[in-house]
Design brief:
about 230 residues; mainly alpha; two-stranded antiparallel ribbon; disordered N terminus
Amino acid sequence: MAYGLIGGAGMGFALGGPLGALLGALAGHVLDRVLLAPAPKPAAFSIALIALSAKMAKADGVVVPAEVEAFREVFDIPPEDLDAVARLYNLAKQDTAGFEAYARQVADMFADAPDTREDLMDALFHVAKADHALHEKELVFLAEVGRILGFKGPAYERIEARHVRRPGDPYAVLDLDPDAGDDEVKAHWRALVSAHHPDRLAGRGLPPAAIKLANDRVAALNAAYSAIARQRGL
């Protein structure tokens, strides 16, 4: 998958803001296939995920090698590019800019694309779970990033429920009232699976390799419906 070479300083200028400043600090390092797209918005998504994940690890106080591997799973990063991702990750950890600044820039860039903002939240949860655990400080961090990105109350709980198992989760995942009728449950589940199908990622501003996020989301929807179907004997 060839997307050309992206120089840190050049793309940083195109992005602007704190994310652009972060990438600009890599001037002289060519990021090949790391950002997976030669346009500011897809690059912003990739850089924001790396930067916010670094801030999340700093807030949590635990940095594990599995986190870079989690980036690789989301973005299909070839081995030769892992060093560039690690450099960007380490820069973000040391950067004095707070995570709120990164999140606000993403919220502004994707103000008219709630699905893409939700994709970023799913990607952050994916990285947070890289060590097979979600720590309390990570959950607090994720909730605040979600708030900045426009997900509060039930909207955030629906996203969290795909990654954190709590009582009543199947209905939260499907954003349904437990009193919903069988036909409504089935129709709503089918509509959500269609809306979140991996094919729908095209044109959403995500790197193409991020299809894994959609696959995971559809799997969570299917698991929630199966749990409800078992409960109701459907």
